Fold this protein.
Amino acid sequence: MEHLVTHHTRILHLLAAVFLASTVLYGAVVLLVPPPDAPVVMQTHPLLWVFASLTLLNLLTIMPVYRAMLAKPRRVYAVSQDPEPLLRAHLIAHLVAMGRLELIALMGVVLFLVTGRGDWFWYFNGLALVSMLVLWPLREKVENLLQLPSVSQEGSAYSSG
């Protein structure tokens, strides 16, 4: 079981690192590509408000969707004790959450390309980066998902009694 947790955590770390790297790549694109001379759309603020509203809606629904995606596999795991389907669902839920955060960074790129406002891009990209770091996969979270005691808890349990 420990090997399974370690392997799953490594895969999640790799995928999260790829998503983080892509947002850094977007930042490099914005730094290297000159902004348009004139905005493609003359009324740019409504576009900002639409994207900001979509971002807020996206952020507010990430965790409820994440939990909903894991609800049925958790019930199945409680009965079958087979961790593979639960870990597969966990991986997919993480991919969906990170993809939704990636969308926030992409909205920033679109805002930059349409309006030429680099500051708007950095707001959206920074929010996506911070949110990805908050959702960074930790071994303890995978252990809690499978209800495994962590090494520090095992050591304290043995030393206390």
The radius of gyration is 20 Å. The chain has a mean pLDDT of 87. Residues 2-32+42-149 form one domain. The helical segments are 2-32, 44-80, 83-115, 118-134, 139-146, 151-160.
